[in-house]
């Protein structure tokens, strides 16, 4: 029996439809200019420019120094297949909510794609002053707890490939100092966890551990985040131990 045709919604929102079409074109076709987008959608260049600017703002697109647009880190997350990402999220969320109950702080799960990290799950605590949900947000990997955990898994050659100098030719300030980063990642490997004090967001402390598959490959970073005023360094061993047990429980569920 034939599948029914897909009908447009009763109240079509053109701007949303245009943005989704652009995102699809960028993901499937590669680079596009403002003029090409305007021609494909049948809109003015100014309209195409505004739509692309919003996609850049939300990390669905990036603009290079040639003023050409390409798929951004959110779309590049396709390297993590939807089924794998959703499976990881589904396995982790119950344990993340239990962690919130134990620690009374917000908990996050993030994966790495290239030099970016995307938060695929968040569980907020109920305190008035708390770290809000990061779900769906994208940050530079070297500035985040999960990013440091996952970059620590790479060899020197692989790290160089993540941060080639030519990619940052127009924005050298965004490229980390690789010598300093290597020293930090060596410390992460020795410790087996990360303490991020204000690195990705001022006034926030995050502690994280890796979450691995059955082969020992790091899949994601599991972290607890709190306002810096509530962080007590004497609690660090207990926090790491609690996170490590939760990561182990998620890994067991994934294995099953």
Write structural notes for this entry.
This protein has 256 residues and is of the alpha+beta class. The protein folds into 2 domains: 14-71, Arc Repressor Mutant, subunit A (Orthogonal Bundle); 79-255, 2-Layer Sandwich (Beta-Lactamase). The chain has helices at 14-29, 34-41, 45-57, 73-76, 82-103, 145-151, 156-162, 178-191, 236-255; strands spanning 61-63, 69-71, 106-113, 116-123, 138-140, 194-197, 204-212, 218-227. The strands form 2 sheets. It has a 6-stranded antiparallel beta sheet, with helices on both faces. The protein has a two-stranded antiparallel ribbon with strand order 1-2. Helix 1 packs across helix 3 (45-57), helix 2 crosses helix 3 (45-57) and helix 5 packs antiparallel against helix 9 (236-255). The two termini are 36 Å apart. The model is unreliable at 1-7 (pLDDT under 50).
Helix-strand blueprint:
Blueprint: H1 14-29, H2 34-41, H3 45-57, E1 61-63, E2 69-71, H4 73-76, H5 82-103, E3 106-113, E4 116-123, E5 138-140, H6 145-151, H7 156-162, H8 178-191, E6 194-197, E7 204-212, E8 218-227, H9 236-255
Antiparallel strand pairs: 1-2, 3-4, 3-8, 4-5, 6-7, 7-8
């Amino acid at each position: 029996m034939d599948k029914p045709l897909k009908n447009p919604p009763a109240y079509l929102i053109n701007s949303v439809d245009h943005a989704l079409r652009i995102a699809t074109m960028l993901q499937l076709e590669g680079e596009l200019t403002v003029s090409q987008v305007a021609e494909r959608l049948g809109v003015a260049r100014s309209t195409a420019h505004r739509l692309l600017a919003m996609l850049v703002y939300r990390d669905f697109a990036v603009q290079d120094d040639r003023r050409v647009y390409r798929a951004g880190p959110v779309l590049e997350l396709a390297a993590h297949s939807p089924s794998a990402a959703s499976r990881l999220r589904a396995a982790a969320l119950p344990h993340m909510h239990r962690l919130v109950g134990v620690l009374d702080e917000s908990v996050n799960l993030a994966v790495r794609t290239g030099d970016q990290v995307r938060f695929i799950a968040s569980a907020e605590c109920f305190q008035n002053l708390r770290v809000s949900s990061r779900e769906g947000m994208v940050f530079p990997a070297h500035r985040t707890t999960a990013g440091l955990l996952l970059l620590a898994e790479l060899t020197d050659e692989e790290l160089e490939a993540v941060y080639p100098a030519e990619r940052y030719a127009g924005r050298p300030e965004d490229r980390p100092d690789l010598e300093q980063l290597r020293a930090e990642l060596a410390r992460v490997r020795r410790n087996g966890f990360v303490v991020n004090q204000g690195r990705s967001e001022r006034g926030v402390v995050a502690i994280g551990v890796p979450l691995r598959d059955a082969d020992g490959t790091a899949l994601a970073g599991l972290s607890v985040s709190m306002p810096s005023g509530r962080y007590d360094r004497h609690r660090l061993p207990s926090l790491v131990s609690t996170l490590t047990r939760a990561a182990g429980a998620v890994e067991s569920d994934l294995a099953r």
